[in-house]
Design a protein that fits this description.
heterodimer, A: about 675 residues, alpha/beta, 23 helices, 8 strands, elongated, B: about 70 residues, mainly alpha, 2 helices
Chain lengths: ~675, ~70
């Protein structure tokens, strides 16, 4: 018996409910079914989730990030593994998925706080996160325990199932071979490996006594079986239960029934040896008359024609004892040619099968093939006694049924069993395949299907030209290439390099923009690829490098691509060249023009822009400023006057606050914002 | 005594991955170009990138075909 895998202790509150998977829903979906799936899982209206995601998207970008994370984490609408589960070859339970989504949510809040401090987006995100956490708490989620378990969940030690080669969601289901009881053979050594794979021989063995015993219950009415042992004085005392017990004993030592019956004292104690004395005497003879053989078989009218032991019983009246009596040269089966230690003598042998008992080597009967070997065909003998002629040799190219049966046996047990002469004699003595015992002459071969040219025979016949084309042998599986760490290592290194460059940019120690950062990352990836050319694999690096290179090339063509990220303060002092250009990608910029030297009556132009964020321009109080402000989505504030909305265009001229002798210098200021705010104000 | 007819171990050497090699050289060149000096013209860099990748793939396919 195989040891059952350890199962988790059941919930003391009762039987645990089947785990509910968090999957996307195809019904009622709008985009990908994430909100519908969440609504179905929580029992809430999916509109609530949609509103939440929309608010998060509008408040900050975390809504998109959270939605993508949910899309990747949740399972498919048909219950299959989600994208992330397929990538990681793990199955996440619903609790883990929700915990990871909450972690992403919290991570977004942290990003918001880190980037913009406490602003509207942060407040919205924080409020929604608090609502979500409180709702979870109200539904019985222990938030503290969940937070503590996050490291384990993230590292895969908890809340997920690792994939195995037979992992059901990732591999097609294959029917276990143990479901077919007759395939391994009743004497197969592997049959008793587990409870499910109980020895298939038990079933026929348990039926045997019922068929042998003329029980009044009618259990043996299928099989007439006028067995001498069963009909003897001991037989009336036997009951069905007893017979079943005997069958169990027989099954235990995995021995052929024929021998077991002899060993069984109950069955053989008072065996009517008198009835069989004459037959035993005849059995001692070297040449057994066919008439005698057929007479012996006629007593056992239900004895079936011999066949491969592995085949299931096909007829209800078939005596299974006869099947079991056929020796099986399995590893656990004693050699039928060896003397049985429990056989005291020929007088105690089973009288109905003299041909089987004859070839015991310790007896005087020689082990010679002959008519006794090819015993009577049980099914045919009573009605049609065969001729007492010796079997003529079959013509070349034709095979007898007995040969076929021998080949079938060889197919079931291997060639060694088929080549064993003693085995063949015993096996077919009572089976009734012998041609000489009445089998019709079949010069054109048996009317049976030819055996497939496969393993047991080693293709003894040439393949027929009319046979269906054999499928090509399956390709040998490619050996799995060892994992390569070069790609991951290089990408991590490139990220580190990029982070260092951005940090240098923010601290002002160097004037680096996105092209420089991207160039450094690209060089790092290229170096990793050079390593991967001889060690490891570089497919992932090629893809990453291509993406980075495309972004770099694209950023130099499209002005909208942000080049600088972070907070910047530009403070030009003295005379500046005109026009001065100050660009910011994402972040917060401040352009202080209060210390710029301006010539009286002169005109200077400054261009300042921000793609996403906030931009503040401080102009000197002594200059006349022509402001041309624009914003795609946001507000433009020029000296306490605000214009907001989408596609804002706000132009205004600010006269000098303090009187200036002569002509006042003029600053032409063009400020632009993509998504964000622009403010122009006077210096204090 | 070591047996003289010692079975040779299967070859475990990593054959040159021409795709990785050429792409790596291409990326290094492009990165250095962006690191130094003014930004290059995208009209030049985009064909360089596409052509370089295509050339690397072509050479890799040739190498695979020759090895086979």
């Amino acid at each position: 018996m195989t040891e059952a895998p350890p199962t988790p202790a059941p919930d003391p509150a009762g039987t645990p409910e089947p785990e509910k998977a968090l999957s996307r829903s195809r019904d009622g979906r709008v985009i990908t079914g994430v909100c519908a799936g969440l609504g179905r899982f929580t029992g809430m209206d999916p509109v609530l989730f949609r509103v939440g995601f929309a608010v998060l998207v509008l408040a900050s970008g975390i809504g998109i990030m959270l939605y993508v994370a949910a899309f990747l984490l949740m399972r498919r609408p048909d219950g299959g593994p989600g994208h992330l589960e397929q990538w990681t070859r793990r199955l996440f339970d619903a609790e883990t998925v929700l915990a990871l989504l909450a972690a992403v949510f919290a991570f977004g809040l942290i990003i918001n706080v880190a980037s913009g401090g406490i602003n509207r987006g942060t407040i919205v995100v924080g409020t929604l996160l608090a609502i979500v956490l409180m709702a979870a708490h109200a539904r019985g989620v222990d938030l503290l325990t969940m937070a503590k378990s996050m490291p384990e969940r993230a590292t895969g030690r908890r809340g997920m199932t690792r994939a195995t080669p037979n992992f059901a969601p990732f591999t097609p289901f294959t029917r276990p071979a143990a479901q077919e009881p007759y395939v391994p053979g009743p004497y197969g050594a592997a049959a008793g490996a587990s409870g499910a794979g109980a020895p298939p021989a038990e079933t026929p063995l348990q039926e045997t006594p019922l068929q042998e015993t003329p029980a009044p219950q009618g259990a043996a009415e299928q099989a007439p079986a006028p067995d001498a042992a069963a009909t003897g004085p001991a037989a009336p005392g036997t009951t069905v239960d007893r017979a079943v017990d005997r069958a169990a004993d027989r099954a235990a030592d995995d021995t052929a029934i024929h021998d077991t019956i002899i060993q069984d004292p109950v069955a053989t104690k008072d065996t009517a040896a008198k009835d069989t004395a004459a037959k035993d005497t005849a059995a001692k003879g070297t040449a057994v008359d066919d008439t005698l053989v057929q007479e012996a078989v006629a007593e056992d009218a239900a004895a079936p024609a011999g066949r491969a032991v592995g085949d299931p019983p096909t007829r209800p009246f078939e005596s299974v004892a006869r099947l079991a009596a056929e020796p099986a040269p399995g590893p656990n089966t004693p050699d039928p040619n060896t003397p049985c230690p429990h056989i005291p003598g020929p007088n105690t042998r089973d009288s109905r099968t003299p041909a089987q008992n004859t070839p015991a080597p310790n007896t005087s009967a020689p082990n010679t093939p002959g008519p006794e070997v090819y015993g009577a065909p049980a099914g045919w003998a009573p009605g049609a006694p065969g001729p007492s002629v010796s079997a003529p040799p079959a013509g070349d190219g034709y095979r007898r049924l007995s040969d076929l049966a021998r080949e079938a046996r060889a197919g079931a047990y291997g060639r060694s069993g088929a080549q064993d002469p003693g085995h063949g004699m015993r096996g077919y003595g009572a089976g009734g395949h012998g041609y000489g015992a009445g089998e019709p002459f079949a010069p054109h071969g048996p009317y049976t299907r030819r055996e497939p040219y496969q393993q047991p025979y080693g293709a003894p016949y040439p393949p027929s030209p009319y046979a269906p084309p054999t499928p090509p042998p399956p390709r040998p599986a490619k050996p799995k290439r060892p994992r390569s760490f070069v790609g991951g290592l290089t990408i991590c290194l490139a990220l580190i390099v990029g982070g260092i460059m951005v940090t240098m940019q923010r601290t002002g120690s160097g004037s680096v923009g996105l092209p420089v950062v991207g160039g450094a990352v690209l060089v790092t990836i290229g170096a990793g690829l050079l390593v991967a050319a001889w060690f490891g694999r570089g497919a992932a690096l090629i893809a990453t490098g291509t993406i980075v290179a495309l972004v770099l090339v694209g950023s130099s063509t499209v002005n909208g691509i942000p080049r600088k990220v972070g907070s910047f303060v530009w403070h030009p002092v003295g005379s500046v060249r005109s026009p001065g250009t100050y660009e910011l990608g994402i972040g917060e910029g401040k352009l202080d023009l209060s210390d710029v030297t301006l010539k009286p009556g002169g005109r200077v132009r400054f261009d300042a822009s921000v793609s996403l964020g906030q931009l503040t321009v401080i102009v000197p109080a002594t200059a006349r400023v022509e402001v041309h402000g624009s914003a795609k989505l946001g507000e433009v504030k020029i000296d306490h006057k605000v214009e907001d909305g989408s596609d804002v265009q706000f132009d205004r001229v600010l006269e000098p606050e303090t009187p200036v002798e002569g002509d006042a210098p003029t600053i032409e200021l063009h400020v632009k914002a993509g998504f964000g705010d622009v403010e122009v104000r006077r210096a204090a | 005594m070591r047996p003289e007819s010692r079975p040779e171990r299967p070859r475990r050497a990593h054959r040159t991955d021409w795709m990785s090699l050429l792409c790596g050289l291409l990326f290094i060149g492009m990165g250095i170009r962006y690191l130094t000096g003014p930004d290059p013209d995208a009209v030049i860099m985009a064909p360089v990138l596409v052509g370089g990748l295509g050339f690397a793939a072509f050479v890799a396919i040739l190498a695979k075909a020759i090895r086979r």
